[in-house]
Structures are given as C-alpha cells and as structure tokens.
Specification:
Elements (H helix, E strand, L loop, with lengths): L29 H4 L6 E3 L10 H11 L13 H13 L8 E4 L2 H11 L6 E6 L3 H8 L4 E6 L1 E2 L4 E2 L2 H7 L4 E7 L11 H13 L3 E5 L20 H6 E6 L12 E4 L3 H7 L12 H13 L1 H23 L5 E2 L7 E5 L8 H6 L3 E5 L8 E5 L4 H16 L2
Parallel strand pairs: 1-13, 3-4, 3-7, 7-8, 8-9
Antiparallel strand pairs: 2-10, 5-6, 9-10, 11-12, 12-14, 13-14
Helix pairs in contact: 2-10, 3-10, 4-5, 6-7, 11-13
C-alpha cells in the first residue's frame, strides 16, 4: 500500500475549508429535511462538511466507467485495512479476520441472533446508542442494561457491574468505544479490567468502535480486542470509515474476529437476508484508507475548536453540564437542573434541534452534533442561551 498518505507526510498537504457553509436542503438529508429552514438541526450524527476530495474524485472516476454491475470487494482492500489499523492503533490483525458488511447497525442486530443461543442472556449498556440497546431488546433473548458509572461527567463501564449483572446463561456483552453518547475513550487499564471481567463470565464482546478515528489530543483509541489473548479470541470488533469521513450514505462497514468458529457464526446470512456491500461503498472506503489522512487531521483540528466553543458556552450556562468529550463530535449534555420533561423541546422552540435524551434512555439529557461550520454552531449556541434566559 505504498500510495497511502501516512501521518508523517502531512507537512505539504492542501488546506481544506471546513468553514464553508453548504446548503443541504432539498438533498434528501435525513438531518436537514426533518425541520423547516428556521431550525438549526444538530441532532442526527452526520457532518455538514464536504467529504474529502480524494473520495469525491474516486467516486467520479468510477462513475465515468458507466457500468455499475454486481461487484465484489477490491483485491487488496483487506490488506489496506490491516495496514491502516497497524498505523493508527498499533493493532496487528490478519486479512482473514475481516468480514465486510453493508452496515454496522445491521450487524449489531444480526450478531445477537447468530452468536448466541435462543435462551441466552445478553448484557448491554445505559445510556448508549439506541441501536445497541435495541439489538439486545429485539433479539428475543433475555437482556440487562448496565448503567454506566458517571465520574465527574465521564461515563464508563465498571467491570464490577459486569460481574454483578451477568447471569449463568449470559453469553454476549455489547460494548462501545469511543462511547456514544459522551465520547469516552477507554484507557488500556480500563479495557484490560473490562476484558478480565468478561473472561470471568465467559462473555463474547461485541465492540462498536465506529468513532475510533475521531479521538482528541491527549487520548488514544485502543481496540479492546488488542488488550489480551482472551479479548482477541472472544471479541467481534465493528468498524467503518463512515463517521470519520462523512460517508454514511456511501459507506462500508466490517467486523474483525480472530476466532474462526465465532467469525463463521457471525457471518451467517451475509449475502442473503443481509445484502452484500455495493461498489461505491468499496470505492469510498478504500480512498479514505489510502488518501484520507490529511483531511482527517484537519477535520480533528477544526472539531477541537468547535469542542472548545461548546465547552466555553456551557461554562456560562450553569443549568447545563457537558460530559467530557474525549472523542467524536457528539456532545452529551445533562439538563437535570432544568426540571423540564423534555429539554429538547425547550431548545427546539428557540430554533435548535438536538437529539432527545430519550433515545439514550435519559430523558433529562440532550445530545448535540458540533460537526458544522462555526458560524452555524455559534448561532445555535446563541439560540440555546436565549431559550434558557426565557425560562
């Protein structure tokens, strides 16, 4: 993969404009079409930035061929992923451990059925991305949601809570790192303790790591499968370039599993009830892997500035408390001091659409998407101030 742009080659790269405001109305955008033009939608998790030029150019080049038939994964794509994970996270895997899937979300659901017995018990988390909870809830299995520990507005899974919540028939635990919501990035010691608790209870770990490319300075993403031999053999790691490079509408996902028998079980129904990925998803992902690093670095610099804007605004709004954002562009805000049934409706009346906390099983919270030009974010924060001052 000699044509890949590694982080050491970033000194003479082009400057990307994240301040550019792109009109997303009438583009069939889930995020922007939900509300009228008077509302700033900072709810669902996609970014208002143009995708990297390298991806746009790669898709255009493939479009010029003018035939879009059935396709298989490009030769060498798995090796690209192997090299990327080694470069980014010092994680050594083999190409055979990788299985391509059309969607990370669909895999959350299929894995619950494919790798557990019908009478199994599943552990999930709270608060957590709703598809992780619903994957357990909709599996037909018994399940328990482990409440995360809140330490100075940093959410984390306590290993002791795993031991307390596991049952004799527990077979699977859903994990999320970096965590959504909140943005927690787990340390090696934290991950090791979680893996040890899972080993003690003989649990398979399904780890959603889709935000792993969006970690802020001072933190480092560590795949939980890399912390021990047990974790390597008993973990299914879900990954994608979709969030980091803003390609959820043209993106690909994959899971990584060292254990051959477990990997075969997890792959059940791929290519049948779960469709194969399509050609443009492969093209977009490969371009991100090979050429996306300069764009990603500048994106994270820009998001760090937006994170500071949000943090500064929260300091002047004592009614709200922002959780530590160690990764991603999704801020998790406690509105417990407002004493309103649905704080998202309070802000919506002032023209800002935030993700209701009910989606994550905490009605007195909201989630904010800061992946937008600073002019838009500043206007949204001003509207939030007005909403609170009018109470």
């Amino acid at each position: 993969m000699s044509n890949r742009v590694f982080s050491s080659n970033l000194t003479s790269m082009p400057v990307f404009n994240f301040d550019r405001v792109i009109n997303r109305f009438n583009t069939d955008s889930v995020r922007w079409d939900k509300y009228d033009s008077n509302v700033i939608p900072l709810w669902v998790a996609d970014m208002d930035f143009a995708s990297p030029p390298c991806i746009v150019d790669a898709l255009k080049e493939r479009m010029n061929h003018e035939i879009f038939g059935y396709s298989h994964s490009p030769e060498g794509l798995k090796q690209d992923i192997v090299a990327y994970l080694q470069d980014q996270f010092n994680w050594q895997i083999e190409p055979d451990w990788i299985v391509f899937v059309p969607s990370l979300v669909s895999s959350l659901y299929s894995l619950a059925n494919n790798i557990t017995s019908p009478k199994a018990h599943i552990l999930t988390l709270q608060p957590v991305y709703h598809h992780i909870l619903n994957a357990a809830k909709n599996s037909g299995r018994d399940y328990s949601a482990i409440s995360l520990t809140n330490t100075d507005y940093r959410l984390a899974l306590n290993p002791e809570a795993i031991l307390r919540s596991a049952k004799s028939n527990s077979e699977l635990i859903y994990f999320c790192n970096p965590h959504n919501p909140g943005g927690t990035v787990y340390s090696f010691d934290e991950l090791s303790q979680i893996a040890k608790a899972c080993e003690q209870e003989n649990l398979i770990i399904c780890s959603d790591e889709i935000h792993c490319g969006m970690v802020y300075p001072g933190k480092k993403h560590i795949p939980i499968a890399s912390v021990s031999e047990y974790a390597a053999e008993r973990t299914i790691t879900l990954m994608s370039m979709n969030k980091t490079f803003n390609i959820p509408g043209a993106g690909l996902a994959w899971f990584i599993c060292k254990n051959n028998d477990l990997r075969k079980k997890a792959s059940k129904d791929l290519g049948t009830t779960i469709p194969d990925p399509q050609i443009f998803t492969y093209i977009a992902t490969r371009s991100a892997l090979q050429h996306g690093e300069p764009w990603r670095h500048q994106l994270m610099d820009y998001l760090e500035g937006n994170r500071q804007l949000l943090s500064d605004a929260m300091k002047n709004l004592p009614q709200l408390s922002l959780y530590k954002m160690e990764a991603s562009y999704l801020g998790w805000i406690s509105c417990q001091n407002l004493n309103v049934e649905d704080p998202s409706q309070l802000f919506l009346k002032s023209g800002v659409a935030l993700q209701p906390g009910a989606m994550f099983q905490q009605n007195d919270h909201v989630r904010i998407n800061i992946a937008t030009p600073k002019t838009i974010l500043n206007e949204a924060l001003d509207r939030m101030r007005l909403a609170l001052s009018a109470m």
